[in-house]
Amino acid sequence: MTTVAVLVESRGGEATQPTHEAITLARTLGTPVAVWLGAAPDPAQNARLGIHGATEVRVVPAAEDARQPARAAAALAAATADADIVLMISTFVNKEIATRLALLTGAGVVVDAAGVELVDGHVETLQTVFAATWNVRTRIAAEKAIVAIRPNTTLASPAEETGAATTVVVDAELPEVPEVIASVEPVPAPEGVPLAEAPVVVSGGRGTNGDYTLVRELADLLGGAVGASRDATDEGWISHEHMVGQTGTTVTPALYVACGISGAVHHRGGMQASGTIVAVNIDPDAPIFEIADFGVVGDLGDVLPQAIAHIEKHRAG
Amino acid sequence: MEVAPASSAATLSRMRILVTVKFVPDLQSQRSFTDGAVTRTGDDGTMNELDENAVEAALQLKEAAGEGEVYALTVGGDDAVAAVRKALQLGVDHAIHVSDAGVAGSDVFGTAKVIAAAVRKVHEEDPLDLVITGMAALDGLTSMLPTALAAELGWSQLTLASGLTVEGGAASIVRHLPDAHETVSAPLPAVVSVTDEANTPRYPNFKLIMAARSKPVATWTLEDLGVDPSSVGAGAARTVVVDASPRPPRENRVTVTDTGEGGVALADFLIERGLA
């Protein structure tokens, strides 16, 4: 039987939605076990992880402050010695952990995957490259596989047979590393759902002229997160954490609404694989219209309030 | 918004830095795959744009130190020399092109092995302080190489730096993660990757472009580096691309011009698709 270990991503002591997506995905590949780096979580977390199919939660208390990738990877290696596949969420930090883990175990690695399946006993992954204009299928030839999966690529769902996952405490000896973390300044969590995980993203660019009121209003109405183009973050209109693009956050929501964003290749690379793309821009020649399922050539100040009012009216019945 | 501190070297009198640069298809070109590998040809290829930040960081550190050398290193076929030529135009002192048919098809671990061997060759002749890389290559974007290279060399790893300082035999970086801003330091030599927030890359000027033409590019093979060909290349790769195809264009795209009802049309589209 294939054992699939899933590295839990937690925020404020709770496993994130992408973690539950990854455990749901792990069920299609074998027997999921969750790995929790740090002190044991609240039992309620075990229950939720169990609902999605995790049979065990392997807790590595020694990894409480293992922010350096080499230390986190050593902790993960100790907890996943029997695993054929290790899944994690594709973040910059996890890509580094995946790399270090692969060097410890000889595993093959794919990051930024949009899907994973077993084909003839081999792990195969799907990714998009070149600003999401190409699909690539990769086979992992090594015996062990590590896959970093993008959020929003699997719909989290409860397993048929569920029960609280049992807790297993794993001892790990973490290596000394030369990197010293001198300070950690937490970034306040955004209100609502984080950008990378949001099912809906409403982004504003140069066309907002720095006023995000309407963009936020539409995002709130649709239950989404607020994104931005590089232009807007460079102007200081909104913080870097909101930047969607190849060097910011890559998003694949069910709906992406681009407001006053021209659609430079760097931006498109961070959102082009989204489900439905909608664009509003005053410039009919903006490249964003080439990839939008629905585009409106017009002024944000006219189009957005009218759309918001119409959706509210529709909901009110 | 916080302004990223410029790279600076306060006490070192001589900085020796190697920058890795990657040859990638131009972002604006029709990028494609051939036999499971990215098609890279001289016609539409260039130095990976994010590597310009790495070159800039290295040049700024050297200039602040007053003296030193900056090397640009690339690995790839004949066309890849364009990447180090671009680095020479930006002002690096030396260019190295590792070119060997045995490297083709390497995964990130094979590539890191080859680059590490080349770094050691330079380092053994005259010690390096830093290897600087870009944050990712805009063709594959995996961001795994800096970590794999640091591990292969056994050097400190300082990744995703939006600010970099070198002082007293140690490098210190600021990195902006989604949940926290970290300050991380480590002793030299270190592998540092810089983001596009770290600096604004310079443009090559006419004088440098002319000077770059006559600068030599050292070409090294796996044999020159003492790398066993069976340990790299397609045969040693842990991952294999089995299929690559262009994504089909979106069908039934609609663009309307707002003549007073654009917002309603947008709302109706979302409602129809069950998205609002």
UniProtKB/TrEMBL annotation, chain A:
Its cofactor is FAD. Binds 1 FAD per dimer. FAD binds at R206, S229, R230, G260, I261, S262, G263, A264, V265, H266, H267, N281. GO terms for biological process: fatty acid beta-oxidation using acyl-CoA dehydrogenase. Coiled coil: none annotated. Pfam families: ETF, ETF_alpha. Residues 4-189 form the Electron transfer flavoprotein alpha/beta-subunit N-terminal domain. InterPro entries: DHS-like_NAD/FAD-binding_dom, ETF_a/b_N, ETF_a/FixB, ETF_asu_C, Rossmann-like_a/b/a_fold. Heterodimer of an alpha and a beta subunit. The electron transfer flavoprotein serves as a specific electron acceptor for other dehydrogenases. It transfers the electrons to the main respiratory chain via ETF-ubiquinone oxidoreductase (ETF dehydrogenase). Belongs to the ETF alpha-subunit/FixB family. This is Electron transfer flavoprotein alpha subunit apoprotein.
From TrEMBL, chain B:
Residues 35-229 form the Electron transfer flavoprotein alpha/beta-subunit N-terminal domain. SUPFAM superfamilies: Adenine nucleotide alpha hydrolases-like (SSF52402). It comes from the Bacteria. The keyword Transport applies. Its cofactor is FAD. One of its GO terms (cellular component) is cytosol. GO terms for molecular function: electron transfer activity. Signal peptide: none annotated. Keywords: Electron transport, Transport. Coiled coil: none annotated. The electron transfer flavoprotein serves as a specific electron acceptor for other dehydrogenases. It transfers the electrons to the main respiratory chain via ETF-ubiquinone oxidoreductase (ETF dehydrogenase). Belongs to the ETF beta-subunit/FixA family. Heterodimer of an alpha and a beta subunit. This is Electron transfer flavoprotein subunit beta. It comes from Demequina mangrovi. The lineage of its organism: Bacteria, Bacillati, Actinomycetota, Actinomycetes, Micrococcales.
